[in-house]
Specification:
There is one protein chain. The mean pLDDT is about 85. About 35% of the residues lie in helices and about 0% in strands. It is globular, with a radius of gyration of 14 Å. It has a domain of about 40 residues. The protein has about 70 residues and is mainly α.
Length: about 70
């Protein structure tokens, strides 16, 4: 299982908090690539709810991670 920005972007609009099965259902209904669905299926289902993308991919880059100075533009 691996995540990229492109793959995880398909889950940004998911109805969080959500269980693994709910995320899989959302990915299928929203037409996400098969690799997104396979990644979600590889997660061990312990009945926990995911509050956001960071719960799936702890290294998910946030806006603060980029060194872009918005005041310049």
């Amino acid at each position: 299982m691996y995540w990229t920005l492109e793959l995880v972007s398909h889950l940004e609009e998911a109805p969080y908090p959500a269980s693994r099965d709910e995320l899989i259902d959302f990915a299928i209904r929203s037409g996400a690539p098969q690799l997104v669905i396979e990644n979600l299926q590889q997660i061990e289902d312990e009945g926990e709810l995911y509050e956001g993308i960071e719960d799936l991919w702890p290294d998910y880059p946030r806006k603060d991670d980029f060194f872009f100075n918005e005041d310049e533009y």
